[in-house]
Amino acid sequence: AKIKEVEFVKSSARAKDCPKHDRPEFAILGRSNVGKSSLINSLVRKKDVALTSKKPGKTKLINHFLVNKSWYFVDLPGYGTLANQLSVVSQVPDCRGQGFGDLRFAKAPDAARMDWSAFTKGFFLSRDTLVTVLLLVDASVPPQKIDLDCANWLGRNNIPMTFVFTKCDKMRAGKGKRADENLRDFQQFIKDNYRVPPPWIMTSSVTGLGRDELLLHMSQLRNY
Ligand code: GDP
């Protein structure tokens, strides 16, 4: 399951410019500052192949990286920032309803809308090689509406996802809720809203928590 080689392939401005649908893809997504670069660095463990700030292309592009010559890591533009919004969800929307099957979202509230550029949506809706979306969620803050909206949108469009909680080392954060309480709240949301809850993995780029689990999870999904 180890990442031995990462090769930048291309940056695409539109879904139809992406590489051919020839290999399994894992898209990585989350709001700005969620810890995406740190997580990728910790997965890849090589400074020179990491996708930090010096990633190819601009942040508003879809970046494809070929890993071990066999599958793609797709770095998608982040959505939102902690500064510009992140209203705390005081009441988790009730989205229970009809389910569609495995890993399918039951029924999203009408309000669930994602303010993505069309091309990000186009990517999700057009890539039949997409194995799963790794949806990064910051465990150091309470569940955020923008993350729930994103999960709702993916669920409503039947896009498989894996919740990857970041910053799980912050279990004793001074103010507000601790990461374990935040996690519990978010996990409750998942349980309440999915007939078959998508998998979730707890990670920390500081302690390395969840790193091997995430790599194993991806390799298992590839072999289906
Ligand atoms: P990005 O914008 O999603 O790529 O986020 P970064 O990886 O740049 O991280 C944003 C901030 O969160 C930085 O200050 C990181 O040091 C911090 N951070 C990222 N991952 C972790 C983590 O696992 N634990 C803790 N405590 N802080 C983290």
From TrEMBL:
The lineage of its organism: Eukaryota, Viridiplantae, Streptophyta, Embryophyta, Tracheophyta. Its cofactor is Mg(2+). Belongs to the TRAFAC class TrmE-Era-EngA-EngB-Septin-like GTPase superfamily. EngB GTPase family. It comes from Malus baccata (Siberian crab apple). This is EngB-type G domain-containing protein. Residues 22-224 form the EngB-type G domain. One of its GO terms (molecular function) is metal ion binding. The keyword Cell inner membrane does not apply. Keywords: GTP-binding, Magnesium, Metal-binding, Nucleotide-binding.
